[in-house]
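Note to self: user wants both folds in one dump. Writing first protein now.
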Amino acid sequence: MADATSQTAHQLDPTPPSRPDRDDGHIKYVAHLPGAAEDALKAFIGRPFAGWQDRAEHRDGDPLALLVRFEAPSGESVEVELGSPNGGRAFFAGDHITLSYRSTAALPDPMANEGARALIEAVKQRVAAQDAQEQPVVALREAMQRWRTFSPVGDWMYRQSSPQEALIRLGFRCNQDCWFCWQGRDWPEPPAEYYFKWLDAFAAEGREQVTFSGGEPTLHKALPELVARAKALGMRSWLQTNAIQLSKPKILQRLVDAGVAGLFVSYHSHDPEVSDRMTRAPGTHGRTRAGVEASLAAGLHVQINCVVERENHDHLAAHAADLIERFVKPFPDNPLKLVAYSHPCEYYDEDVWARSVVSLEHVQPQLVAALKLLTEHGVTVEGIGTCGFPPCLLADEPQLLRWLVPEDQHAMDTAGRIYAEACDACAVKQRCMGLRKEYMDLMGDAGVRPFATEP
C-alpha cells in the first residue's frame, strides 16, 4: 500500500477503457478513476502540444503534486510540475495552484529553447486562467484525490460472483482487528450507491443469493436497505459477520425484518482469551457468542467459520465441543447448521503471518477430531473448501472428504494456489486446489500426503 509521504510515482492510465463505467458487464468504480484523473488533468491544463504523457507523484499527501511531460515540436520533452501553494519558488504561483518547470538532460535550460519556452508559456497562461476561477483547481484536486485514495484497492475487492451467488463487500471498516485479516485497515470504500447498482446487476444476471461482507457489514448504515432491496429482487441475503452487533436486539430485529436469511459468523475459539487475542478486540468474544445465540433464537440459519493458525490449532476438538453445547443442543428447532475450518491466506502484516502459520501435519489430528465430533451431532462440516485445507489431511476419514475441481472455481479462489512436487504422484490431484503459495514459501510440503489411489 502506498505511503502518502513517499516519492513513488504512479503512472496514470493513458488509455482508459472504452466503457469506463463497466467491467465485464458490471458497473465499476475504482477502475475508472485513473482515466477520470487523466481526463481531469487534460481538461485542466489543455493540450497546447500533442504527444504528452503525465503521471502523479505522491508527495506529502498533496493531490496536486503532478508531473506533466510534453513533447515539444522540436522533439525534446518538456516537464512541468503542478502543486499546491507552499510558499516556495515557482514559475507561476496562484492562489490555488503553482506551476514550475524542470530541467532535463536534453534541455538543461528549457527557457533557452524556443519551442520549450513557447510551450511553458502556453501552459502558464492556461494554469493562471484556471487558478483565477478556483473551481477547475477544486475539480482536479478531487479527481486526483479519489484516484490516489483508491490506488491500493480494486473493484474485485468490493464485488465478485459465481454462477449462483454474489458477494458485495461494504468497505473495510470493522469493530475487530483480527491479525489474520488480509485487508488494509484504512482502505476506502466507494459511494454507497454503487452497492445498490451492483446488487441490481447481480439480480438481473440471475444470481439467487448475495452475501454482504466487509470489514464488518453490520456497521454499514446501508445494510438493512440493501437486504430489503435484495429480498425485493428475489435474492436471499447472507452476512459474513462477527455477530457483535447482532447481540443488540434492535439491530438484529431490523435485519430480520429486512429479510436476512443467514449468517456466516467468525468464531475462532471457544476460549475468550484466545479469541480476543486473535481478534485484537478484548471483550468481543462474549458479544459474538451472544449474537450467535440471539440469531439462532430468531430463526436465522447460522454457519460458523474458524480460521486455523498457531494460536488455536491445538484445541479445535474443544472448540467443536463448545459449539455443540452452546449452539446445537440449546436450539433443537434451529441448531447451528455448518462449521468450516479455514486455512488463512497471507495476512496484511506479513511478519505476523510468518509467526502464526502452523504446519499442516500439526493441524491434522485436531482438525479430524473436530470434524468427526460435529458430524456425529448432525452438523455439516467443511475442512476442505476454497478457504480450506488440502484433501490429504482427511485421507484417513473418507466420509469427510470434499473434492473441488480447480477449473470449476472462481479465479479469486484459485489464485495463489500451487502444488508441491509430491503432489505430482497424487491420484486425485485434478480434484484438489493445491496449497497456498505463501504456505509453501514458509513450510514447503510439510503435511502433504499424496493419495496412492483414488478413494
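First done. Writing the second protein, which came from a different request thread.
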Amino acid sequence: MRDTDFDSFGQLLDAVCSLLSRGSYTPNATNSALFFRSLSEYSLDAVRAGFDAHVKDPQRGRFVPMPADMIAQIEGLVADDGRPGADEAWAVAIRAADENATVVWTEEIAKAWGIARAVFDAGDEVGARVAFREAYNRLTDEARRARRPAKWDASLGFEPSGRVSAIQEAVAIGRLPAPDRYLLEGPATSDEPSPVLGELFALRERLVMRHDDGPSPDLEAKQDTQRLKDETAERVEAYRREHGE
C-alpha cells in the first residue's frame, strides 16, 4: 500500500474491528499506523480481500484481527489462486501437442510447455515432463510472490467443434468469460464457407494475446524455448544419468 491509502485502510480497519468487537472497538491512530505498516507490502485491494476473508472465517472471524491474522488470510488467498498443481498442469499442457486440440491454460502452463516442447518433440516424454514440472513450479512461485492472479487463455486448435466445446467448458467452470455468440453456434453443417469459422480464427489471437500490454503466452513460450533450450537439455541429461537411462 502507498501512504495515500492510509485513510481508506483506516476506515476499513475501523469498520471490521467495530463489527467484530460488537461496537466496543475504539479507533486509535497510533495502532492503525502500526497495523498499516505491517501490511504495507500488500496492495489495498489485497488487504481489502484479506479483511473480507477474515470476516467470513468461521474461526478467526470471531475475533478482532491482528496483523498476523491479516497476513495469513492474504497469503492464503494467494496460494488458493486457482492455478493447478504441476501434474494437473502437465495433463493440460500435453494436449497442445495435438494442433487440432483447443487448450485452455494459464500463462505459466503455456510458458512451461514452450520450454518442454523441444524435449517432447525429440521423443522424450519423460524428460519433457521433468522439464515442464521444473519450469512450471518456478513460474508459478514467481507469479505468487508477485501476487499476480491466475490468467486463463485459450490456444485455439484447428478443429472447430473442439474449439467450441473447450471454450464452453472453460466458461462453465469460470476460467474464461462468456464467449461471443458465434462460439455457441458450432461448426457449419453445409458445404458453404462458414463465417463462424473465420471469426473463430480471428478469436484465436484475441484470446491468447494479453490485451494490449505485451506478447501472447504462445510467443513468450517460443522465446523461452530458444533461451532455455540448452539449459533444459542439460537438466534432462542429468535426470537420465541419475536414473540410469
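Dump finished. Worth passing along: The chain is about 60% helix and 5% strand.
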